[in-house]
Amino acid sequence: MQQNSAAQGFSAVVGKVPAPCLVLAGVSGIQFGAALAPSAYPQAGAAGVVFLRLLIAGVILCVLWRPRRRALKSAKGAWKTVLAAGALLAGHHIAFFEAVNHIPLGIVATIEFLGPFAIAMAGSRRALDLLPACLAAGGVLLLSGGGSTSLPAVGLALAATAACCWAGYILVSARMATRLSGGQGLAVAITWAALLSAPYGIAHAGTGLLDPHVLWVAAVVAVVSSVLPYSLNLEALRRIPPRVFGVLTSLEPAAGALFGLLVLGQHLQRSQWLGISAVACASIAATYLGPGKRRASRVRATSGSLPEAESARAGPASREHPGPRTIHSSGRPSGNLTDVQAPPPRLDPNDSL
To answer: Do 234 and 172 contact (CB within 8 A), yes or no?
Structure first.
């Protein structure tokens, strides 16, 4: 599929940014939007804001990426993956923003982190791999105040639902990133999420959806916490494994607490600031101890690696044209320094998505 100039420009810019930076930018945008959204709750409620946010984001992404049905049909299993991603996004958004109605943003983000944390734990094979995840888990406990505060059960249940949906979306969107180029799949997924959330949002918000303040807040939240973060995350997932992505998003509790303080005036205790530091250190450790680094060392020792410029060019083309292509050591097409030319590819039976 041929992209328009805006999409090409976006891809060119984010392609030069390190994948961990893309994830951190996405985390910041999501949590800032979560802190801004409650200002429209009196008029439209969480359900109305979620519906408008997804609808506006879907329209913007469809204009940007111009998805084509033929492109989705040509990729094996693309439609199922895209629709699953949209359903998980709808469930995550509704659960997350409803949870913020009951418990503080920092606590919601902390519980939501359990989703990617579970991915990080499931993908670990060595004791060293568990260190960043364990450090992040300790930081989460400190950030939440050690569980000493009594929280409403409904808020905890909603936050836990958001965690499950977010974990599922990480895995499904990683598969979507390998099947479709650009953000065409993401555009369709978010549009599908908007359609799924429409009955819930309209039933709860009614005419409040037309309030100018609600529309303004929803538009800002759609851009900063949907369009940009999910586009950046999708690009990052093309370069790093889901479990590394999961640990990097452990900064969400810290970002949620920070924006809760700046936007909502939610102050933190000393133990919670220590939790922020622990989670940040865990994310940095995951970046340097991630499996991609070890795989790159094994590849260079056996087959050599592509120069950076050549590897970057090989990524998208390798997914669209037959013949010799760049294959990640896990068997997934990619475009980073862990790629080697391998006809035919050798898959690692111990690798998972």
So the answer is: no
Beta-strand pair 340-341/326-327: antiparallel
Angle at 190 between CA 185 and CA 196, to 5 degrees: 125
CA trace torsion 15, 18, 22, 23 (10° rounding) = 140
**Distance of alpha carbon 18 from alpha carbon 20, whole angstroms:** 6
Q: Give the H/E segment covering residue 113.
A: none
pTM over 0.85: no
pLDDT by residue (tens digit) across 42-65? 999 999 999 999 999 999 988 887
Q: Count other C-beta atoms under 10 Å from residue 174's C-beta.
A: 23
Helix ranges, 15-152 (H):
19-36, 41-65, 69-74, 78-100, 105-112, 114-122, 127-143
Q: Is 334 in a helix, a strand, or coil?
A: coil
CA 241 to chain centre: 12
Residue written as token pair 């303040």: 213
Count of C-beta atoms within a 10 Å radius of residue 236:
26
Q: Per residue in 216-247, pLDDT tens?
A: 999 999 999 888 887 788 788 778 877 677 67
Q: Which helix (H) or strand (E) holds 93?
A: helix 78-100
Bond prior to 344 in cis (omega within 30° of 0): yes
- Write down the number of H helices and E strands in the chain: 17, 2
Neighbours of 211 (CB within 10 A): 17
Residue in the block written with tokens 């309030």:
211
* Cα dihedral sign, 259-103-273-129: negative
User: Residue 322 has what pLDDT?
Assistant: 38
Q: Is 77 exposed, middle or buried (CB count within 10 Å of its CB: 0-12, 13-18, 19+)?
A: exposed
Question: Nearest Cα to 111, choosing from 99, 123, 127?
Answer: 99
The answer to whether residues 168 and 105 touch, using CB atoms and an 8 Å cutoff, is no
Selection from 69, 16, 40, 335 nearest residue 215 by Cα: 40
